[in-house]
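OP here, attaching both records as promised.
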Amino acid sequence: MTDRNHTILIVDDSRANIHVFTVLLQKKYHIITATSGEEALDTAPRELPDCILMDIIMPGIDGIAACRELKRNPRTAAIPIIFITARTDAETILQGFEAGGVDYITKPFNGPEVKARIKTHLALKNTMEQLREANHEKDRLLSIIANELELARQIQKSIIPITTPAVKGLNITMRYIPMEEVGGDFFDFHALDEYRLGVLVADVTGHGIPAAMISTMVKIVSSMQTHNAADPAKLFYEMNNTLSGNIDNQFVTAQYVFLDMENMRLICGNGGHPPLLIINRHIKNVQALNPQGRLLGCYPDSTYTSAETLLHKGDRIILYTDGITEVFNHENTMFGEEGLISFTRKNAHLSGDEYIDTLIDELRNFSHLDSFDDDISVVVIDI
C-alpha cells in the first residue's frame, strides 16, 4: 500500500546512502533528496516534506546544525527529523535531541525498522496537526485524544522485540500486555554471541504519548550499551546519565540480567525496579535478587551495584514489571511479590508459555477484571 501524499526528504552527502534509502522507501512515499545541510535548509522550507531523514556527519553545515535551523523556522518547525548515523556516543545522541530531532536510527540500519519509525512519526505529526485544528471542538478533541493514545500504544509495540535471540542452553518466553490506555513498559535483548545474553526490562512512569516517546528513547539509550552488556552496574550508570535531565519530570525503573551460559553464571542490576526472581524448578526454592540502584533519569552520577549467582539446569528466571505485582482485588489487597512467588512455586512444572498464560488468568481471577490498570510485561528464561 502506497502513501504518495507523504513526502520524505533524505539528507546525506553520500549518494550511495541516498540511493539505498530511496530504493527502500520510494514504493510507499514521494522521495526528495539533498546532499548537504545547506541544500536541506533551502529544500525543506520550499517543499515542506512530511518527514526528514538526516545524516549527522556532513561537510559544511552538519545534520545537527541543520536540524536546529529548521526548528527555528516556523515553516519547518513541526517536521519530524530522524537522524541516521553510525555515531552512538551519548554526547551526539543528546545533541540531536536538544536540536529537535525526534528519533535516531543507527547504521547499519534495519529496513523494516526504518519504515516502522517513519510511519510512527508521520502518524504522530498527523495527530498533532489534528489537535491544533480541533481547538475547542469537544467531540473532535475526544476522538483525537483516543487516536493519540492508540498511536502511543503503537509506538510501544513497535519497540518491543517480536522474536527472542537464539542462545544455547536457554528457552525464552516473553509477553507484553498493554493496558486500555498507555503506559511505558519495554524490554530488549543484548545478544553478544551464542552463549552470552543480556536482558533488559523497563517501565516508564506516566501514560500517553510522553511515556511512549520516552520508551523509544530508552530503547535508543539501551542499544548504545552493548559494550557494557556484561556489566549491569556500568550499563545502568551510563543509561542513567544519558537519560537524566532529558525526560522532564518522569523516570524509568529497570531490571537487567546478563547470562553467561559457558560458565553458568548470572549477573543482574536494578534501577528502582521489582526484584528478579530465580526458581529452582526441582526443589521449588525461589531466590529474589535486588541489588541496590536508583531510578533511571532522576539523579546524574547515581551509583549501581550488581548481584551474581550460579545457574543450574532447571532454573527459571523471571523478569517482570509492577503491572503484575500491583494488581488489586475488591478488598484492596495487592497481589504483591509474595503472591507472585507463591504462584511461581505452585506452577513451576509449566512451560514458559503455559506459566505466563496461567499467570494472566490468575491475575484476572484475583482482580475480577478483564483488563488491567497498567501494562504487564514478563520475560521467562528457562535454563
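Record two, same layout:
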Amino acid sequence: MKCDVRTLEESLAGLDRQHLRRRLSTVEAFPEKDNRVEVIVDGRRLLDFCSNDYLGLARHPRIASAMSEAAAQYGAGSGASHLITGHGIEHARLEEELAAYTGRESALLFSTGYMANLAVVTSLAGRGDLVLLDRLDHASLIDAAQLSGARFKRYAHNDTDAVSHVLSQETSERTTLIVTDGVFSMDGDIAPLPALASISRERKAWLIVDDAHGLGVLGHSGRGSLEHFGLSADDVPVLIGTFGKAFGSFGAFVAGSARLIEWLIQKARPYIYTTALPQPVAAATREALRLAQAEPWRRERVLELTSRFRKAALELELPLTASETPIQPLIVGSVEVALQAQNTLAKAGFRVSAIRPPTVPAGSARLRITLSAAHTETQVDSLLDVLSRIRNALPPVA
C-alpha cells in the first residue's frame, strides 16, 4: 500500500464505514481506594468488566507500596538492557522465584508478553524449520512465526488430529515447534495440552505454551493450565507467562531448562536489544506473586463468580462460548450489534469491550466479559440484569 496522507485518510474512512476503527478511551480516575473494579472514563463512572485483573491485585496497596519503595531505592528506570547495566537485584530475585513457582530450572524476564513470544519462537526456529500454530493463537505468536523465517502452518482451533496429520506428512529432521495459548484470550477455552504433549513427545517437537491467561487462575494452586492438566516441565519444555493479567503488574517471563534460558540470553533479540524492565515493576511483581500464593481465596473467588455468571447467563440463553475461565465472551456476530450492546452497557454503568475483526474472525464479533475476584455477587447480578434487557438484540444461541 502506498503510504501517503491521502491513502491513509481513505483507509481510515474505510475502517469507519465498516465500524472497525479502534478508538482510545482514557481512564481519568479510580473512585475509591478500596473499590478496585470501578473507573471513571470520559466523565462516566463505570464498573469494569473487561480488565484481565482476575485476582483483583492491580490496585492492591501492598503491591503499590512495593513498587514505591523500590523506586525510592533503585530509581524509576533500569538505564540499559539486562546485558549492559540493567539487570538488578529485583530482577534476579524475581527470576529465581518464578523458576520455583513454575517448577523449572530457570526463568528469564521480558518487558512484555509480545516480546517473550517473539524471543522464544525466533530463537528456536529458523529457515527450513516448522512452526505449528493454533488458528486462535495470540497475534504475537503469529508474528513470531512469520519473523522466524520458518515454514508455519495454522491448524483448526484445538484440533489435535490436524496437528498429527500435518506432522505425519513431515519427513524433515529439522526443528518443529508446536505453539499454543494455554487459555485463549478471546474465547476463554483451554488448549488440549495433554494431547499436544503426547504428540510433541512422539514427534520430538518443542511444545511451547503461552499461559498468560491461565497462570494465577487455573490449577489447584493457581499455577495455570499445566497444573490444571497435571503436566510437568518434561511435558511442556517452554512456558511463557505474563504479569499484567492475574498478577496485576506488568511484564513477562519465559521458564524452562537452564540450557533454554542460556540460549535465549545469547540469541533472543527482543531480550538483548531492549532496556530492562524497571526494578520497581519487578519488586511489585514479587509482592503480587507472594499475595497470589498466600491468598488462594482470590482464585477460588473469581472461579465462583465465573460459575455464578455462567449459570445465570445460560438460563437467560445468552450466546456464551464454552469457557470455564474468567473470560466469558458473548458472541453476537455483527459488529454493529456488538458496538450497540457495548454502548447500552456503558449507559447502564458497565465497562465491557466489543471485540471486532481482525482481533476475532469475521462474523464472530463479541462482548468480552471478564470476572475478577474484586467483583461482588451484586455487581455480577446487576450486569446480568442489563444483559437480559438487551437480549433481544443478540442472536439466538447456536
